[in-house]
Design goal:
The complex is a heterodimer. Chain A is of the alpha+beta class. Chain A is 31% helix and 25% strand. In chain A, strands 22, 23, 24, 25, 26 and 30 form a six-stranded mixed β-sheet that branches. In chain A, strands 1-2-3-4 form a four-stranded antiparallel β-sheet, with no helix packed on it. Chain A has a four-stranded antiparallel β-sheet with strand order 5-7-8-9, with no helix packed on it. The longest helix of chain A has 35 residues, at 421-455. In chain B, strand 16 (169-174) and strand 17 form a beta hairpin. Classes of the chains: A alpha+beta, B mainly beta.
């Protein structure tokens, strides 16, 4: 037998591997594999419950198996008080499992104790057991075999109660009627026996090949008017070897009609059948048929008299592997068994190889005619069938997961007081506008850079590289510029860069700050420079808040630990640098384009004065300073000296900022704090 | 309510399994453990519960095998009784009423008719070890008042008492001394260690004791992790002890192997240490057992050990230190922060499990499915370590998403928070981390809830925190050119006057979000995140918040800390009604309009089931539990019940489970005890009958021959065979119920002697009736086989024909007696 329960050598054995769900709530799934081992799986968590190897597993492999009807345990002793809480206990405990073997013996295995309970041999079969059925009430067991006989066992004494010849050829399948008084058997023909007298009640003929499965589909007759004797009027279903039709038969009161009433068509030989019994007349019978080709066909039909045309399935379920990459095609995964859950709305599917099957509960939707489930069972192939002791499942944590830390966009939406709802909408709109404006500016940038190249071919090409990099979003170009550690270079580059590139640069810096902490150290230098140099320009922008919101949040979250102290520190640094800068200020030669922009900027200065009142603007400027100062204070000190030397390069913009900052700083700071800081 | 009595509170799973040492049966097939008021019998091979021995009316405090009959088990309980059970069939044989609260039970093979128990007689913390004489009587319930005092002022824990060297002495430890009482000499010796005042021996306290089964050797465990082996203790002066030190923390339990060659110890490190030959060098370890080892026990056959752990599990360990089975109850090591949830996918109950794990507990099968490792960090078992705790969890979108919040707080200001959002991957059938959020809030998260509306374009999650904000997270498309991906981002942050957000809840259709800020409830539109309205009753902080469902979806319910239950109408934005009820748990039923509220009063907890639209509760049950109820949940039924009576109707669609402070899981049952009992009669009993093995042919045939021989010898001697019925011993044996029979050894000689005379008649009886009836129909094959076996016997008989007249030798008689003794269990079958 190949993996997946395909290719059964013997046509008389029920196709596929013998397997069954435990009755009632399908807690377990028993599967007797071709290597002679019995494995019981827990359906709820797909865990191997136990493994049993019969002593003669190689000669007498298991050919069929059946769970005993639920054993109900004593739950409470009668003398218990009423009010006291009591245990529910392991109710409806499933215990015995009957295994039929190829040599004719029947083993009763106790799944609770995990050992062989008894062995039914004496007086039984002398050839392969084909089917076992438990009687639902009286603890009897019926088995049929290749030796043409049907045996009734008393499981309490493990002795044969009765043995009779069931057919001229081997008997391949059995089924007990819902009332427990009749027995269906099938070899070449289907026979209905009266259990009490062991006499044939009815014959049914129709299958050309040996019948592999028999099951009653209804418990009540279709018309309730006539008296019900327990079996007349009931429907049952049969499937046969190499037959793609499942026949439905009706037990009639008069013994004339012998043909099937209707049939279901499936794609291959049925290997496992499960159905839900309909409680009333209106409710359809739901039927799940697992075929040899690994598909499940679902039928939903109200059984009511004849139907000439074979019915096709309402829904087909297939399972395939995902198929790695685009080239490899998905491969089908065979389904071994399917069982309806107690709610009748979902199906337990067992698929994969019999060595390590996967059990999954699939919810059924009546609409789809074809369900194709993509499942990755590649990790199940590892032969790890030993019982998992720890019962711990580790969910997958891989690098693909998104990580949100404070400051990263998505971690925090902008905090706004509830009434300012409208502002948000407004700012969003502004954002949109602004993007266009950046584009425009970048468009203008082209000309600028060209000019720059023409005019200043001798100067460091960093500003050019930077603007070009920002424009084209060229990662390598930006890397070349931004990964410099030379503070002077940074300062000069920032000074010479065109104003419209400031916002893109800030956004690029923000992005990099969110990245690796090592690169963030470098970026902080850049950020500090940009903010000190271009503070006044930034303060003129009306839509600064939405544009640099993430940067603000990032800084806010990173300086959270000593917030007030770092605010103070930042303000003081800014103050001192600006004061020294203003003292040393000299007229300096600015690039031509700068001159243009200075002009433009002056015109908007009045506006900016008004806007500067916004807290957020100031805050983030300061915080930025803070942060940097916090991180590399020693660098700052050096830098200050350098600053002093370079002040001559600074233009008028800085002075504006300085004055503003002075104002803010003075108003915010306590004299005490200041002294401490000093 | 007329039917009030009929809906009863029943315990379902989750009692403590680790309260006392587990006990193995003589053949190591079964393991017994106390579990609340019951004793559970588990199979060591399959972990399955075979029987529940029910009968005690209070906590069971001790179990021991009957040393005279290894198929019987003694148990003692706080209810003052000692009970004797037949564990194979799960039958109560006898009850001995002592009348005092019994704390522990010990048995000794040498003391046949008495057991030892720990009682406290006078003061609350003074415990005594006494022996109780169990009188022989045929009645079911016997008074056992004959107590004889053994040791005084002992520790109440059974770990601090041990009987040694086949019951020659008993050792007890408490605080800083070890006392040994010799039964023969009737003297007590006491050995004291230097007390705690000396700093060097600060933690010298005794914690447990074990005695060597063969030699005079006592092992004691100490708080500082040392194990001392005491020898020569029959001499007060010359006693010696040696130290074994590996444990860095308290030794929780000690046990000697059956032969005494190795000593097992365990503690908080959750490592089982086996000391071979009681030397420090030869140690074997079984590490990573998951939780503190509370108890260790050894099977009488010597092939298995077991350890009971603080996370409510018992691990069965093979002799070569390999764990072979785990009997796991509901994990109850840590606090339950997450509350009770139902996983929509597996329908399992989900709550905190092992540290850092979520446990999935199947209610249908009453066992743990698995633990989901959320934190994924090695758990270090050490006292005083501050661990990462899993504080919140929520399932969303039909089980496709799981949100978990973990926190660790070392000091007031050092809060570490992490929120993880897991997606269920259908392909691999498991959860995959999708988004990890560090510090989602600046303070503790008080509530996490998904929007579970049916037609929802993208999943929405809301977290509320003590930092005064609630955050709305939505699933967005994070695809870039490299891969397709989705991830969660914060969409909106809301606050209300800097009050702490204490609770949040989505309405059934997902259109409204209610967030409570201390005393105030705010209602937000989930489309625009606009504040719609606020409710404030000034009745204390809101503890629970939930929307009505189905027809009652216009109502919002809030329970406050001042014991007021408010119901607001969302259409009129007004208070509909309010009631004075100190609500501890409030849970809506997902399948109906019903809401269950559990209130706490001074006496106990009361349950109220009501519909928000109706002022009168549907159902009230007073005093559902003595202790405080902490969490509750409605679990939808797979198959709806159809109760018509008013009291049951609320249980039609869902079942209500609740968890008390001591972490016992309770539920309501509508079945009467009688109803539950009836299936027992239908119980399928299959006799164990295994075919003969080659070994049997070697040994069993020989015995059979001897049997034959003996019988024939007697037959030839005796002229007249008395009828079975006339022999008083047989009739007594056959007509008295099995559970009132005296012990087998008592009956054996009498029985065997009578049996020898009457073999033929008895064997006739033994053939079951149905075989008699059906015999005619049996096939020829079986007859043939019977013939065959008969032939074998015939040949044997002829072989040994000359010995037939031999008298029964002494040794043969002994063997026969042994044989009968072993196989006497057939009595119960009769």
């Amino acid at each position: 037998m190949a993996a997946g329960g395909r290719g059964v050598a013997d046509p008389l054995s029920p196709a596929g591997v013998p397997c069954a769900f435990s009755p009632l709530n399908q807690a377990y799934f028993a599967l007797a594999s071709a290597d002679g081992q019995l494995r019981v799986w827990e359906t709820a968590n797909n865990r191997l419950h136990q493994e049993y190897v019969p002593s003669a597993h190689l000669s007498g492999t298991c050919t069929c198996l059946a769970w005993a009807p639920a054993r109900l345990q004593a739950k409470e002793s009668p003398q218990r008080k009423k009010r006291k809480s009591e245990a529910i206990g392991p109710s409806n405990q499933i215990d015995l499992l009957a295994l039929g073997t190829a040599v004719g013996s029947i083993l009763l295995y106790s799944t609770v104790k995990g050992e062989l309970h008894s062995k039914l041999i004496s007086g039984g079969h002398d050839n392969k057991v084909n089917c076992i059925q438990w009687h639902q009430d009286n603890g009897c067991l019926y088995s049929c075999s290749d030796d043409k006989h049907i045996v009734e066992w008393n499981t309490q004494t493990c002795k044969v109660k009765c043995k009779w010849k069931g057919d001229n050829s081997s008997v391949s399948s059995l089924c007990i009627s819902p009332d427990g008084k009749m027995l269906l058997s099938a070899g070449r023909t289907i026979k209905l026996w009266v259990l009490e007298t062991k006499e044939i009640y009815r014959h049914f003929t129709g299958h050309a090949t040996p019948v592999s499965s028999l099951v009653f589909t209804t418990v009540r007759p279709p018309s309730e008017s006539q008296p019900f004797d327990g079996v007349t009027g009931l429907y049952f279903l049969s499937g046969a070897v190499h037959d793609r039709l499942l026949n439905v038969w009706q037990v009639r009161s008069e013994n004339k009609e012998k043909n099937a009433v209707m049939s279901f068509t499936v794609t291959d030989e049925p290997v496992y059948i499960d159905l839900t019994l309909s409680e009333n007349k209106e409710e359809p019978v739901k039927l799940a048929v697992v075929c040899k080709d690994g598909q499940v066909h679902l039928f939903e039909h109200i059984l009511n008299g004849y139907c000439k045309k074979p019915l096709t399935s309402n829904c087909t379920i297939q399972i395939v592997t995902p198929g790695k990459g685009k080239k490899s095609t998905p491969k089908p995964i065979p389904i071994l068994a399917a069982g309806f859950c107690s709610d009748k709305m979902s199906l337990l599917l067992v698929y994969g190889n019999w060595f390590q099957p996967t059990i999954e509960r699939v919810a059924l939707s009546s609409k789809e005619p074809h369900m194709c489930l993509v499942r990755d069972i590649s990790n199940c192939w590892a032969p790890k069938v030993e019982t998992a002791i720890t019962k711990v499942r580790t969910p997958v944590m891989n690098s693909e997961a998104k990580v949100l830390v404070p400051g990263v966009p998505g971690h925090h939406a902008a905090i706004k007081p509830p009434p300012s709802q409208t502002e948000e909408v407004e700012s969003k709109r502004k954002l949109g506008e602004n993007e266009i404006s950046i584009e425009e500016r970048l468009g203008a940038l082209d000309i600028d850079t060209k000019k720059e190249k023409d005019d200043l071919p001798q100067t460091n090409s960093f500003p050019v590289l930077l603007t070009q990099g920002l424009e084209s979003n060229d990662f390598e170009m930006l890397n070349k510029v931004l990964q410099t550690r030379n503070l002077n270079l940074i300062k000069r580059t920032v000074l010479r860069m065109p104003l419209h590139a400031v916002i893109p640069l800030l956004q690029e810096l923000t992005k990099r700050l969110q990245g690796h902490p090592n690169s963030a150290v470098l970026m902080v230098q850049w950020l500090k420079c940009v903010l000190t140099v271009h503070a006044s320009y930034l303060s003129t922008l009306p839509d600064l808040v939405p544009q640099l919101g993430t940067l603000y949040q990032l800084m806010e979250s990173r300086v959270k630990t000593f917030q007030k102290l770092s605010h103070l520190h930042g303000k003081l640094i800014l103050l001192i640098t600006q004061v020294t800068a203003s003292e040393k200020s000299k007229g300096m030669t600015c690039p031509e384009q700068k001159a243009k922009l200075v002009y433009e900027e002056e015109s908007s200065e009045e506006e900016s004065d008004d806007e500067i009142e916004k807290d957020s603007d100031d805050n983030w400027d300061e915080d930025e300073e803070d942060k940097e100062s916090e991180k590399d204070e020693d660098v700052d000190e050096e830098e200050e000296e350098e600053d002093a030397e370079e002040k001559d390069e600074e233009n008028g913009e800085d002075r504006d900022v300085a004055s503003e900052k002075e104002l803010n700083g003075d108003s915010d700071l306590d004299p005490e704090n200041e002294s401490e800081e000093e | 309510m007329v039917e009030e009595e009929s809906v009863r509170v029943v315990r379902c799973g989750g009692s403590e399994l680790n309260f006392r040492r587990a006990v193995f049966s003589a053949d190591s097939k079964y393991i017994f453990c106390v579990s609340g008021d019951f004793v559970k019998v588990h199979s060591t091979a399959t972990e399955e519960c075979v029987h529940i021995l029910q009968g005690h009316r209070n906590l069971v405090t001790g179990i021991q095998l009957n040393p005279n009959n290894h198929l019987q088990l003694y148990s003692c309980s706080f209810d003052g009784t000692v009970k004797l059970w037949d564990y194979v069939d799960g039958i109560l044989i006898k009850t001995f009423v002592v009348g005092l609260k019994l704390h522990a039970l010990f048995t000794l093979p040498s003391a046949e008719d008495s057991v030892f128990v720990i009682i406290n007689k006078e003061k609350p913390d003074v415990f005594q070890l006494v022996s109780v004489k169990l009188p022989k009587s045929s009645s079911q319930e016997i008074e056992a008042k004959e107590l004889s005092f053994v040791l005084d002022y002992i520790n109440q824990s059974p770990k601090c008492i041990a009987f040694g060297n086949e019951g020659e002495y008993v050792a007890a430890v408490r605080d800083f001394y070890l006392s040994v009482y010799f039964f023969k000499k009737k003297t007590t010796s006491r050995f004291t260690l230097s007390s705690s005042r000396n700093k060097k021996h600060a933690k010298n306290n005794f914690t447990c004791v074990a005695c060597h089964p063969k030699e005079d050797c006592i092992a004691t465990g100490h708080k500082d992790g040392k194990i001392r082996l005491w020898r020569n203790f029959d001499d007060d002066k010359k006693y010696t002890y040696t130290c074994l030190h590996w444990h860095h923390d308290m030794v929780m339990d000690l046990a000697f192997s059956v032969t005494g060659t190795s000593l097992l110890s365990g503690g908080r490190e959750s490592v089982l240490v086996e000391w071979r030959d009681a030397t420090e060098k030869n140690k074997e370890f079984l590490p990573r057992l998951g939780a503190t080892i509370e108890h260790i026990s050894v099977s009488p056959a010597g092939d298995l050990f077991c350890t009971s752990h603080s996370d409510n599990k018992i691990i069965v360990i093979h002799r070569n230190l390999e764990a072979s089975a785990v009997i796991q109850g509901l994990v109850k090591d840590s606090n339950i922060f997450t509350g009770l949830m139902v996983d929509p996918r597996t329908k399992a109950l989900v709550l905190n499990g092992k540290p850092g794990h979520l446990q999935f507990y199947s209610l249908q099968h009453d066992k743990q499915l698995y633990n989901l490792d959320i934190i994924q960090q090695e758990y270090i078992n050490d006292y005083g370590l501050i661990q990462i705790e899993l504080t919140k969890a929520a399932f969303g979108c039909y089980g496709n998403w799981l949100a978990t919040v973990e926190q660790r707080q070392e000091k007031e200001t050092e809060l570490e928070l992490q929120m993880k959002l897991w997606m269920y991957n259908k392909k691999t059938q498991g959860f995959v981390l999708n988004t990890k959020v560090n510090m989602p809030h600046e303070d503790h998260i008080t509530a996490v809830c998904f929007c579970n509306a049916e037609k929802l374009e993208n999943p929405t999650l809301v977290t509320s925190s003590k930092d005064g904000h609630f955050k709305v997270w939505i699933l967005t498309d994070d695809s870039d050119i490299y891969k397709k991906a989705v991830g969660w981002t914060c969409d909106f942050v809301g606050s209300y006057h800097k009050y702490q957000a204490t609770n949040c809840c989505f309405s059934e259709d997902g259109s409204l979000l209610a967030v409570s800020f201390e005393e105030i409830v705010t209602i937000w539109d989930s489309e625009t995140w606009e504040l719609k309205c606020t409710f404030c009753q000034r009745a204390g902080k809101i503890r629970h918040l939930c929307f009505g469902r189905l027809t009652c979806s216009k109502y919002l319910l809030g329970a406050t800390e001042n014991g007021i239950l408010c119901c607001w109408n969302l259409l009129s934005c007004a208070l509909e009604w309010s009631a004075k009820l100190n609500v501890r748990v409030m849970e809506p039923d997902p399948n109906s309009e019903n809401i269950a509220a559990i209130s706490r009063s001074s006496v106990g907890s009361d349950l109220f089931v009501f519909k928000p639209s109706e002022p009168r509760p549907l159902y009230i049950q007073k005093n559902i539990s003595r202790e405080e109820v902490q969490w509750g949940v409605f679990v939808p039924r797979d198959v709806p019940e159809s109760f018509t009576s008013e009291a049951y109707q609320w249980l039609n669609r869902s079942q209500f489970y609740f968890l008390t402070k001591s972490q016992s899981l309770l539920t309501f049952s509508t079945k009467s005890p009688e109803e539950k009992l009836t299936p027992t009669s239908k119980q399928l009993l299959a006799e164990e009958s295994l075919p003969t093995t080659p070994f049997y042919f070697i040994l069993g045939k020989h015995r059979e021959q001897q049997d034959e021989k003996i019988n024939e010898a007697f037959e030839s001697e005796l002229v007249q065979l008395p009828l079975t019925e006339n022999i008083p011993a047989i009739s007594e044996l056959l007509h008295t119920p099995a559970h009132v029979l005296p012990s087998a050894s008592f009956l054996c000689s009498k029985f065997v002697s009578s049996l020898l005379l009457s073999k033929e008649t008895k064997s006739g009886e033994e053939i079951p009736e149905d075989v008699d009836m059906e015999e005619g129909k049996e096939s020829d094959d079986s007859d043939k086989e019977n013939d065959f076996t008969e032939k074998i016997q015939d040949t044997n008989n002829t072989d040994l024909g000359e010995d037939l007249l031999h008298q029964l030798s002494k040794s043969e008689e002994k063997e026969l007696r042994k044989f009968r003794k072993v196989d006497y269990s057939w009595i119960t079958v009769l």
